[in-house]
Amino acid sequence: MPRLTMFRSLLFITTLSISLYSRAQDVCPVIPAPVTAKSTNSNFLLNDRTVIVLQHPSFRKEAALLQEQLLKYTGIRVQMAAAGMNTAYLSARATDKNKFPALIVLGKKSGEEDAYTLNMNEGGVTIDAGGEEGLVYGIMSFVQLARLSNPKDQHATIAGWRIEDRPVMKWRGFMLDESRHFFGKETVKMLLDQMALYKLNKFHWHLTDAPGWRIEIRQYPRLTLVGGIGSSTDSLAPAAYYTQDEISEIVAYAAARQITVIPEIDMPGHATAANKAYPEFSGGGTPKYPEFTFNPGKESTYQYLTNILREVNVLFPAGMIHIGGDEVSFGSASWNTDVHVQKLMKQENLKSLVDVEHYFIRRMADSLQAINSKVLGWDEVTAAKLPVAETIVFWWRQERPEQLKNALDKGYKVVLCPRFPFYLDFVQDSTHISGRRWGKEFNPLRRVYEFNMSNYPEIKDNNRSQIIGFQANQWTEVIKSAERLHFMTFPRLLAMAEAAWSDPEKKDFAGFEKRLTKFIPLLQQQGLYVMESTKTTPEPLR
Ligand code: ACM
Questions:
Q1: For 69-87, b where at least 16 C-beta lie within 10 A, e where not — what string?
Q2: Which stretch of 118-132, 169-183, 437-451 has the lowest confidence by average pLDDT?
Q3: Whose C-alpha lies nearest to ligand 1, atom 2?
Q4: Residue 58: band (very low, low, confident or very high) from pLDDT cuts 50, 70, 90
Q5: CATH number of the 27-165 domain
Q6: From the CA of 60, how far away is ligand 1's center (Å)?
Q7: Residue 107 binned pLDDT confidence (cut-offs 50, 70, 90)
Q8: 326 lines ligand 1 (CB under 6 A)
């Protein structure tokens, strides 16, 4: 090769590798992508001499979370600075860095509760946040970076970043249906761990439906003892449900991770399991959906359900209860011949079964208002004349955009969870066998990631602020093993997390996929069965 050509080739290779290197350095691997992230061109050495220093005493809980997360995911045993030593420690370290080991400072800054700044260099790490929420998000970004640095033997050399971050959407939700199949508290905690790592903050827990009632209610023990029997695939499965102690344990576990748990007690439809336990409150159903409804014509039904909601509201400090309200028409035909409902219709001048449905929902909303709980419901509740300031509507029927428009026109706050792309019980690949699809439609990773409000003409500049967030829903009619639950939930939940948190203008699927590649082994290390690629990952069919 002539010398000049060789020189040019070398120059080309050098330039290429420098530019590849600097590009790799420019892309912060964190999911969801932060608002801004700049490399500090330095490494932070995390080891078991690292200590945590608090600049605000109220951050003690978050410091404990950071310690626990680092131990769990990196094996590194970070300690707290001695009590009362915080300021002293900082000044002592400033004068003698050798004697005082590297540190992580949790500090407070002004601004939004959920905003944080993470700054890392050789000297230490600072996470400053507007409040506890932001602090936990900063901690999770740091934990991700620590995990991605291949920690070993009490050491991690973590590439430094300066990150300024806050979410675009306030509601970043995940719904799990445990009526169809019951998974139990270890699985729920695993899901909460994952939600926290990717900064999801609302766990919507679908605890009651036709196949089973899954939450202990002290006043009505048969709800679980009888209503808890069965599942979508085995009508004789032994009673499975959460005791109130377990509910409290899970609510506390979620709260430590800045996740609010919202229970769903579905009514007046999807009530079959409850009606098995207390048939006196059944409003009947149809041949295809027997005993599907509560009876809206009996005054005693309102007292019964109000008692249940009052107990539920004590267990969940969220101050919001989801009362479903979906698909009542599947079973409400029986109301046409029910004497109690017919009497109610005359008395209240209700002209149709839908009017009855709305009357019922309004009565239950009154019960919730009386206990200071917000009313959450599927988009069927939009026409029920609920109090605008106290209601959140979940738009799920993507084939009915007019429901979204109606909800927005009436002034409701709305969570977007349309079947396409946010129902994770739809298959994610054309070759998959088990799971839903509509004709040729299903929900591949890319479709979840690329969800963008600007594609919905119903959402305009003047109502955009009513959209409080996005949510992925996991229905479990055909998901009965933890392995299938993992497979159907991940990695799509990470795509949803980024769609909800990050700037939609900056979304880039190819970049996301590349970052995701690094996270797949981390999910697997935690025992999750996830699709790596359609070519190499067999679909678990049971
Ligand atoms: C729903 O999928 N029935 C809300």
A1: bbeebbebebebbeeeebe
A2: 118-132
A3: 396
A4: confident
A5: 3.30.379.10
A6: 40
A7: confident
A8: yes
